[in-house]
Protein: ABC transporter domain-containing protein
Amino acid sequence: MAQETIVSFDTVSFMFENDHQILDEVDFSVRRGSKITVMGQNGAGKSTIFKLILGSYEPTSGSVNVVPGLTIAIAPQVTPPEDRDLTVKAFFEKYFKEKVYDMGKRIDDVLEIVNLHAPHDRIIKSFSGGQQARLLLASALIQNPDILLLDEPTNNLDPAGIEHLTSFIINYPETCIVISHDADFLNAFTDGVLYLDIFTRQVEQYVGNYFDVVEQIEIRKQKENSKNAKLTKGIQEKRDKANVFAHKGGKMRAVAKRMRKVAEELESDIVEVRKEDKKIRDFIIPCQEDLSGEVVKINAFTIIQDHHPVVKKAAIVVRKSHHLLLTGPNGIGKSTLLESLATGASKDAIIGENVRVGYYRQDFSTLNFEHTVYQSMLDALETAAGGPIEERLRSTAAGFLITSALINSKIGTLSEGQKGLVAFARLVLQKPGLLILDEPTNHINFRHLPVIAQALDQYTGAMILVSHVPEFVAQIRIDEVLDLTK
Structure:
């Protein structure tokens, strides 16, 4: 029974209404009890695969087959807007069609699994991003599904949360399909990989853990390159000889013709080498030119202890070229401090006058989802001075893999990873004096992260950063750390 195929895609193609094709005659299968990773570049269609399995999308052609009677639950990347004003109790109740009489106990049990303790009457939007990530995971687990779909589940989680989640997945007896860019997390439990190739729109299926698959892909590339090199050499030799024989005339012309035909046959044997995901171009975030003096002053901040606010004194001054890192566990108040600073809501954390702020929010709520990418970038560009607008905008967009086809799409239709790239492109155009970055690695393809880290390391303005990814932070110059627990 453990080897039974419970999900299969049979020559599945999928295309959005704007003729943007995501999948092209895709075939793969998932067996009961397996732990599968879905990989691919931002925008390749990973979340689309999930929506096809759930039945939220219908394939353009082909068939998606799920064994009848199986239950499926998904932990999405972000809390849906309509859920943010619900209480914890109402949030979990919505996943059941009928009244559950032991709901309180069920909620406590599932919150224990995700290592979160919360009053049932607390409002969802009052939780931190990391706590909301745990609630989203718990909302899937409380349904006890046969197939568990996890979309970037480590986003916003602190190290303790990731460790807890990893342990849970390893011990989960049912089928689990995970989208993630976190290599170490994936390697702990993966026994198979579905790789979405953004160039061919195909899905490659591999057996093994994450690092096994990376090695298999590299070996395959080397073999393909070696085979092509030999074929290219043979083709050139045949053509050179054909040219020699053709000049000799007579019967030799027939020999030359046969050699050219052999060369053409060899050309048809050349395979298309598997392309790597594209990486964004190196970039810099220009600093506001007239920046000077105290950019940010933090005299006090509020943390959350046992679900209650506690005010702590501070004496933090951030000037130009000063990089401040905020640390602390999920739910302590890091994002709240950043938001109160960016919005001017705090009297004890103040930004200097005329400082242009570039604010990267983990939920991308600084982006207008109804705007096109072009409109969004144009808005950012108009806050900064000078330069040929159209040329700068399109050149910057191209560096962040925002193609001419993508630039006229609405922000709301983009994948979360693509929204992140748009947010970074806006920062480049905006020329901020202060960067406020809340979990800037969330949703971003791991190939882009060293490029982003380098840009932040070289940023000459003031910067305040929150990140739970130590490998990312280690690549950035940090001048001061504010640990909210101390």
User: Anything to note?
Assistant: The CA atoms of residues 50 and 56 lie 9 Å apart. The first helix runs from residue 46 to 54. The chain has a mean pLDDT of 86. The chain has three domains: 5-214, 224-268, 294-483.
